[in-house]
Write a structure and sequence with these properties.
Number of strands: 14
Mean pLDDT: 89
Low-confidence stretches: 1-5, 105-114, 286-291
Distance between the termini: 5 Å
Strand content: 15-25%
Order of helices and strands: EEHEHEHEEEHEHEHHEEEHEHE
Strand order of the largest sheet: 2-3-4-5-8-9-10-13
Structural class: alpha/beta
Helix content: 25-40%
Length: about 290
């Protein structure tokens, strides 16, 4: 019987300013995530860097512009641009957000520079399921959907977020991204129990975990309001939630997101190393027995 070590898969969001450091140091990472919308041109330096990364690492393509929760139909030209990237690089993972960011008016398409929450209703669920099915059929592969960070709840909500996500996953067969920072933000802002949320989350469908930093503000009642800023190190309460998830779910690919006030490469890489060490501390040095 042979014992094979199963290595934790750790990645970071790729930023062009880190390309030189990555090429020189060849860091011990499994994958890099890129935002699809940054690579929808045909060539140039962005694709030259992406091709170089693709030679040594897996790629994860994360979309932010399909507006899957929108009331209207998907933007087919945008979806086809995403398909072109997926066909070109054959990334290990393709993902999007459970949110909306565009609205089709009678005159033109209105684009909003944010990922906005959706009401958790049966009507919205049916629409999101249709959109996920359309994306998966067009791309010819399974999509991963990310849980949102939320600040308010809709009055017309008919189910909670976990029920919505669970039913969406069952009906589409999609995989899920569990953004632990988003869980912490939403739980704080809406006075929910983050650990109860994780206990009910369909962990069997999680294909990737996200970790990021957040900013702290106050609302109109002078209560703490957390903002999904991705502009600093992962906060201690988020690390605690991550430990809890790893204990329950085991090894899962984990991504460090840092999209604003981007630090130097050693600082970002140190967060990835911390994620790897945290994962191993919860599961030990995992091995798999092969007959």
């Amino acid at each position: 019987m042979t014992q094979v070590n199963l290595k934790p898969e750790i990645g970071v969001g790729f930023k062009p300013e880190h390309f030189g450091d990555i090429q020189e140091n060849q860091p011990d990472l499994s994958f890099f995530e890129v935002h699809a919308e940054n690579y929808m041109g045909d060539g140039g330096p962005p694709h030259a860097m992406l091709r170089a990364l693709d030679e040594n690492y897996d790629l994860s393509v994360h979309g932010v512009g399909l507006s899957i929760g929108s009331d209207g139909p998907l933007d087919r030209p945008h979806l086809m641009r995403l398909k072109k990237i997926v066909d070109r690089y054959n990334p290990k993972l393709v993902s999007e957000h459970l949110a909306w960011s565009s609205h089709d008016t009678e005159r033109n398409m209105l684009f909003l520079n944010d990922l906005l929450p959706i009401p958790y209703t049966q009507r919205t669920l049916n629409r999101v399921v249709d959109h996920v099915d359309e994306i998966q059929e067009t791309l010819g592969r399974t999509l991963m959907m990310e849980n949102p960070s939320t600040y308010v709840a809709f009055s017309e909500t008919e189910m909670d977020e976990i029920s919505f996500i669970t039913e969406m996953q069952k009906r589409t067969g999609c995989k899920l991204i569990l953004d632990v920072n988003n869980v912490h933000i939403s739980a704080n802002n809406q006075k929910l129990d983050a650990y109860d949320y994780l206990d009910r989350f369909p962990l069997h469908a999680v294909g990737e975990i996200h970790l990021a930093g957040h900013a702290t503000d106050t609302d109109d009642d002078e209560q703490p309001l957390l903002i999904d800023s991705h502009d600093r190190q992962v906060a201690p309460p988020v690390w605690d939630l991550y430990r809890y998830v790893v204990k329950k779910a085991g090894l899962r690919p984990t991504l460090i997101e840092w999209d604003n006030d981007v630090p130097d490469w050693p600082t970002l890489y140190a967060e990835a190393v911390a994620a790897r060490d945290t994962m191993l501390a919860q599961v030990g040095e995992p091995t798999h027995a092969l007959a």
